Amino acid sequence: MPERPQDDFFDRYERLIVRAAEVGVVPPGGLTPGELRELLKQHGFAAPDDLERVTALLERCIYGERGDETECRDGAYLCGQLEDALPLPESPPAPSRLQRFRDWLSTHSQYCMIPLIAMLLFAVVYGVWHSSLSFFNFTATTSSAIGWSQDYLGEINLVQSVQSPSWSSMPSSPSWVVCNSDPVIDWQTVRHAESVGMDLDTRHDGIFKSRNEVFDPPLGWTHRLIVYNRVNSGYHFLTDGSNMHSAQGTGDADARIYRADVEVMLRPGETVAVPSPTPDAVVTSATTSPRVTGQFTKDASDALYFTSSHDGIVRLRYTLSTWQNYSFAALPDVPFQPVPTTLPDNVRADAQVVINAIGGLPAPTYAETVRRLHAYCAGFTVGPIDQSKRERSMFLTMALQRRGVCRHRARSFFIIASGLGIQTRLVENRRHSFCEVRLPDGSWRRLEFRLDASEGPPSGDSTPAYRAEVSDSSFALPYIVIGLVGLLMLVLLGSRRHNDIAGHIVTASRPSDLSNQRARRDMRSHAPGAATASLIELVRTRLIEELELNPVPPYGLPAACRRRHIPDQMIQRARHIMEADLNALEQGAELSIIDEYFWDCLRIMYYLQRMVKTNESTDRH
Fold first, then answer.
1. With contact defined as beta carbons under 8 Å apart, do 398 and 371 qualify?
2. Per-residue pLDDT tens for 392-405?
3. Within 13 A of 416's CA, how many CA atoms are on the CB side?
């Protein structure tokens, strides 16, 4: 209920327009004060003096003058009586199920719009992601030397002394599916990691220093970073920096393609370990930001390194090709033959104690030996060490009590396997520890120790070889099309509904406009600022057209109004509308300010309708 009698009068007057248009007694253009007077006279609701008084009140209100409370209440009462006296409109036919569904959707659109937009955006992103994977995998496997240009990444200028003969210059990496780069890997971290020892903190598992994905396709926690192939008498595991050789090469159609994205802290002349997927991986292309000169190398343990003369943090993106079935190669059932391994005497003696405790080692075949030892180490449980059963070394204490997390399982396996004569490497990264064993054919096989003993070790015989799957872009295309079309329809529907709501608030002179007007009233009650801002835009356009104003400030409003003899009160209302801050209204304003703009718009529209009718009548005469 409006707070002011004058607002109540305007509200009753607008409702009267709706009813008159429904029954067809109002010609196009609305209900002018003169037509209101004729309707009141026709239905005998007021004496001639009352008719003139109500008509004069309406005209004064349109011009911006305020009537007293008694006049406004009388006007509202007469408009309400006339509305009730007009015949009822014909009952519309019963809506169909489709129409009822549309009505329900229109009523509850505010609840379903956000989930719908989220689903459509997900469809677009999902489709683009799959299409990009398909495109990048295809281009990388067919040609590694096409060399897509990247504005924000510079090509690496390889040092010629370590360059592979198959490269004349470093091929540029293709465009990227954006990965979350791993935290900065610096040369100091690598220096500290050149030697790690045993510990008895066996109470926590699954605590990673980084959870970002380095590779595409993702490898999770199984990428290679620091590789140890020796252990000293103090149970410190050591890296092998000997036999450094180039890690750069070219791929082919049979290679598996991986892409890495890391940030490295470089120091001039210092080698920095960078992730690699397998021991046989070679770098086929790379880019850096900023541009630096550098080289990729490997050591005797096939750990991958990057060296540069640059000083500072660099984002390094590189593509690798690999051919080995590193994770799921079958363990061969061939007779077990130990190979010479290097262990200090005290470490070998401790390893033999554990071998005797396990029993049955070595087994007749290579596969059975590895599986039996893997099952023993994978069965380590998370929990504190029993201090009452301490042995002469931390390794013996941990291995015999079978306590520990991934690093304890992998380090124990390395020592025991080396004691058995199995060539083994310990691999660790910022997330995980695991081992790789050399198969009789010279290739390497990764062994994982996250499984419980009850789940059994991976046999490798029945597990399919992992390969970077190439997504089918035709599968992803419908997601992109559906998502884009749906978003476009939402934009068009939203803009059309918004404009309709604003455009017919005061022009409901046809029965087909009535439902829109009611919807606009609902919108004004739920979002008064947005509805009033749209109405102001409509009134501005109408003022510019009718008064021939400039479309941009300064509008030339005073001169145009004087030419048409428009009253000062109406000029003030028009200036109020033309200078309104729409952004402030849409973001939220006091209801009193919104109502003032709303009623000013109605007054101007009624005045313009009256002015147009007067001009048309003058032209006819």
1. no
2. 899 999 899 998 88
3. 30
